[in-house]
Amino acid sequence: MLVKLFLEKRKGFTMSNKSKLTTGDICKQEANSSTIFRDQLPEKTEKIIESCYDNNNHNHIDYDPLPSKESVIIIIEKLKEIIFPGYFTAGKIDPSNLKYRIGQSVSEIYDILSIQITNSIRHECRRYNKECSQCEEQGQKTALNFLDSIPEIRQKLSKDINATYSGDPAARSCDEIIFSYPGIFATFIYRIAHKLVDFKVPLLPRIMTEHAHSITGIDIHPGADIGDSFVIDHGTGVVIGETTQIKNNVRIYQGVTLGALSLPSNKCESLRGLKRHPTIEKGVIIYSGATILGGDTVIGERSVVGGNVWLIKSIPPDTKIFLDEPRLIYK
Question: Which residues contact 189 (CB under 8 A, 6 or more apart)?
Fold first, then answer.
């Protein structure tokens, strides 16, 4: 209606002479009418800007930047090139160019990672009014320390891959697992994020593991402590909480939750940093859909937890726990 009144007033437009208008006339009228709406944009912009100064909203309006999710994804992609050399590079890697190709990737990762660590530390210091931690120097040192830990990360991931292959007859090769298994991709990102947690880098590790979560449906908190030869089979819907402890040679299937018991919101602050998630001892198998909750819950060595089991208390070693077979009704 607003557009119609505008046209009638500005162009003498009536229904009787509508058919006499040329295409050019109609286009001009449409262009003129659109200005009615565009003229409202400054007002809308001012309202949005005003809301940015409302302390009840979440804003980061500062001269120092936050870490960049886009940069974090670049770091992950570059780390794939040096942790799995030859698998994820644009060209081939051979003995002649290995040193050059790895050296180039390491240099690129250092430049990006040191900046992102610096931004994370600086943001943390400002948000919590901490004393100056010489964040730029700390970011560069931490980036170097992280690069120094890559051989260790590669060894752990090799054990994860070998354990996956030895327990999955559907896998034709370790190459297939590296290229295509979501459990290995999520574990790869967890391993690098957890190392950054060890170096007390804020924010970046969680951005990394949530990137893996968005791609695979596997949600591993970077603070979880996961041992060697860890296998996530299939993987979709797996949740592993922050204070979970998983020992060596553990295998879990899709839909498994290693979580915390839900509490009222006014109890959350008192529990931050405390153990809230279960401990899974060596050699445990947890089948699909199982839920294990609570910081005091311990699943003993070599135990087997069946599908869809709900556990909030510990079980001893060498225990098998399953649900009764359901009663099926045929009609």
Answer: 76, 208, 209, 211, 212
What is the value of pTM for the model shown? 0.84
Identify whether the C-beta of residue 295 lies closer than 8 Å to the C-beta of residue 243: yes
Among the listed residues 252, 323, 309, the one whose alpha carbon sits nearest the alpha carbon of residue 283: 252
- Per CATH, which fold does 64-218 belong to? serine acetyltransferase, domain 1 (1.10.3130)
**How remote is the C-alpha of 41 from its chain's centroid?**
36
For domain 224-325, give the fold: UDP N-Acetylglucosamine Acyltransferase; domain 1 (2.160.10)
- Label the pairing between strands 310-311 and 291-293: parallel
Residue reference for tokens 């098998």: 320
pLDDT digits (tens, 9 = 90+) for 51-110: 888 878 877 766 577 889 999 999 999 999 999 999 998 888 999 999 999 999 999 999
Closest CA to 75 of 118, 122, 123, 110: 110
